[in-house]
Design goal:
Blueprint (H helix, E strand, L loop, with lengths): L15 H17 L3 E2 L5 E3 H7 L5 H6 L2 E3 L5 E4 L4 H10 L2 H4 L3 E10 L11 E10 L4 H17 L5 E7 L6 H12 L8 H9 L13 H5 L10 H16 L5 E2 L11 E9 L7 E7 L3 H4 L7 E7 H7 L11 E6 L1 H17 L4 E3 L6 H10 L2 E7 L1 H6 L1 E6 L5 E5 L3 H10 L6
The protein binds adenosine monophosphate.
The site of adenosine monophosphate has 17 residues, from strand 6, strand 10, strand 11 and helix 12.
Length: about 425
């Protein structure tokens, strides 16, 4: 046996229904909020992330599946979606085609991280991005979409945390204050923090090393250093969230690992998840489109980890199973007619199955039960002679004869009774 690569997973039948549920809820919500889907390749030029995600990030420095392809080009499996979506936005001139662009995408991402529960090397994200809309109401709308997604999935113990990291005008002052406050404590921090202090000091707030925490807790807060425009923007975001009754808490530590964030940053934590408890995270990145060679357009978005949303689903999640029909045959004549009926059901748009190995009717009904069939249509010699089909309601066990010509409609009526398909 050749096993799957460490950190990657097969999504097996049984679990796949949960995935489909999460994907369906996400897609419906995105469309309800006016987002359109865009799909990009899983493979991109390495420099897109070096530039977009940032040279100093852990993602680019340690985690990319990057290699030289047979044509000698440096390429990588995408570690995140935002730079790809920005690239597509710029490359196709979407700012001209759709002046206020709201995009979403779902798909696999790849990071060479140490696998643990909730952290994988191939994982999947829902990614949502809005371009060319700088109003704080847009920040609130994006956060609302994220919050509504978690609520629609009935995920308990979720908490929204927000922060503002300022902009190119005010961040340098904050960084100076941060380094000044660190002062003599800097050599006491971990090696990663020493490196961060040189390359991107804000990311010291991301540090998880236990011994560093008391020092980091004493550091200044970005919200105290915002310029007037950033402070006004952040206040408006908070007002809008309050007006929509979305509960939030400010986390001064929320600077996020990526280089491109400006102003609003946010995360939704799923406290039932354990160590890897970030369900989703995002924020504003007003300079990124321009940095990647595009026009000067604002951007804001978030990425949600689908594995984590699936893990956080409650046991009681109402995952609608498609009600299906089963066809049971008695004898050779019954079998020929049952095969005919099976295809008719499917052609009529109804999910239907049959047992192809010749077996007794009792065994076939057992099989129908295991498949959670809602209705079984039984065809045998007696039914054939009378031009009928026996319809068995698998929930109540009631059976009745219906004329062959009405069998499809009768099955459809039973399948539709529970309010689902078709
Ligand atoms: P990021 O792109 O790092 O901001 O991550 C956004 C979201 O993607 C996180 O909140 C997680 O839900 C998910 N995520 C990030 N990295 C992983 C990973 N290695 N395995 C599973 N989910 C991940």
């Amino acid at each position: 046996m050749i096993p799957a690569i460490r950190g990657t997973h097969d999504i097996l039948p049984g679990d796949v229904q949960k995935w489909q549920h999460v994907e369906r809820v996400a897609r419906d919500l995105c469309e309800r909020y006016g987002y359109v889907e865009l799909r990009t390749p899983v493979i991109e030029r390495e420099e897109l992330f070096a530039k977009g995600t940032g040279e100093t990030t852990d993602i680019v420095q340690k985690e990319m599946y990057a290699f030289t392809d047979k044509g000698g080009e440096r390429v990588t499996l995408r570690p995140e979606a935002t730079p790809s979506l920005v690239r597509a936005y710029v490359e196709h001139g979407l700012d001209q085609l759709m002046p206020a662009t709201k995009l979403f995408m779902m798909g696999p991402m790849f990071r060479y991280e140490r696998p643990q529960k909730g952290r994988y090397r191939q994982f999947h994200q829902l990614d949502v991005e809005v371009f060319n809309m700088g109003d704080p109401a847009v920040d609130a709308e994006v956060i609302d979409l994220a919050w509504s997604l978690v609520a629609a999935l009935e995920i308990a113990d979720a908490e929204l945390v927000i922060n503002s990291v300022g902009c190119a005008a005010c961040r340098p002052t904050f960084q100076k204050a941060l380094l000044a406050a660190l002062g003599d404590d800097l050599p006491k921090l971990c090696q990663d923090c020493q490196r961060r202090a040189k390359t991107n000091p804000l990311r010291i707030y991301d540090c998880k090393v236990e011994a560093d925490q008391p020092i980091i807790d004493r550091l200044p807060h970005s919200v105290d250093y915002l310029c007037e425009a950033c402070a006004t923007h952040f206040a408006a975001v908070q007002r809008q969230l309050t007006d929509w009754h979305i509960p939030w808490r400010i986390s001064h530590r929320l600077v996020r690992g990526l280089d491109y964030y400006t102003r609003t940053t946010f995360e939704i934590l799923g406290h039932a998840l354990g160590a890897q408890n970030a369900l989703l995270g995002g924020g504003r990145y007003d300079g990124l489109v321009k940095d990647l060679g595009g026009p000067d357009r604002t951007g804001i978005g978030f990425a949600a980890g689908l594995e984590r949303l699936v893990l956080a689903l409650p046991e009681t999640a109402k995952i609608a199973a498609t009600p299906r029909a089963f066809v049971a045959a008695i004898g050779e004549d019954g079998r020929a007619e049952a095969l005919r009926l099976l295809r008719e059901l499917r052609q009529a748009g109804l999910p239907a199955q049959m047992e192809f190995e010749a077996r007794g009717v009792r065994a076939q009904l057992k099989r129908a039960d295991r498949l959670a069939a809602r209705v079984t249509l039984i065809v045998g010699g007696d039914e054939l002679a009378r031009g009928e089909v026996t319809l068995r309601d698998m929930q109540t066990g009631d059976q009745r004869a219906v004329p062959r010509a009405e069998a499809i409609d009768a099955a459809r009526a039973l399948l539709a009774r529970d309010g689902a398909h078709p």
